[in-house]
Amino acid sequence: MTEDDVEAAHKLSLAARWPHRLDDWKFIQRLGAGYVALFQDMLIGTALCWGHGTEFASIGMVIVSPDFQGQGVGRQLMAMVMTELGRRNLTLSATTAGINLYRQLGFEEIGKIHQHQGTVFTTKLMGLQPGERIRPMGASDVAKLTTLGARATGMPRGTVLAALREVAEGVVIDRYDEVIGCALLRRFGHGYAIGPVIAPDIERAKALISHWTGTYAGAFLRIDVTDSSGLSDWLTEIGLVQVDSVTSMVRGQAPLADKALRQYAIINQALG
């Protein structure tokens, strides 16, 4: 896949009712590698992958045109990206349509990701602990963000998070000059996406999310949270209803995160 394929890939995803903008495609394509399937010069399938250090990688944006499904196109694309990634441990988010193929390729289910979206008009500010405050993310926080990302996911995230900072706004929870949590927001799809959200506990995660729902009150927001986050009921209550779920899968060993920190909301379903 090259930059010249991105516009056709975007059209393919729109036909599949995926909300990605052309700029969303450009962002993820620049970060990794990918392959396309063609039929008479028409793009009919895509698969992308992103390495996270030497041990881990993620696969996403696996799309096959409805007219060509069931003909082995997706399997061929997956074989190519898996070859590209070598011996790394692999993660992906599987739709219902793709889960059987991924099982056949050796992926195992490890959880769910719940997609919430909607518009929040009023936000109740969540309290923090004494000495803590939410403040804008600054240039001096980049290294701290990289550390938080690695601890919360169990794999290097420096490259992805540095690229995300170029297109996103960010805030952190500062506790006596120590950064203990963060949340980013960027343009995505029909509005804005919140993620990642990294915090030591659910109450601080809610505080970070509430910052963005208050700042962007009345805007269309999306957030993808893990099933273990415990956030789904609360998100629905504030106006971000659950509209879909995908299955988190791994081939090899799952990343081992720091138990004192959690990624409550992912960047997106492709990158994790």
Automatic annotation (TrEMBL):
Residues annotated as signal peptide: none
UniProt KW Nuclease keyword: no
Database matches in Pfam families: Acetyltransf_18, Acetyltransf_7
Domain N-acetyltransferase: residue ranges: 1-131
Domain of life according to the entry: Bacteria
MF terms in GO: acyltransferase activity, transferring groups other than amino-acyl groups
Keywords: Transferase
PANTHER family: BLL4206 PROTEIN, SLL0310 PROTEIN
Protein name (Swiss-Prot/TrEMBL): GNAT family N-acetyltransferase
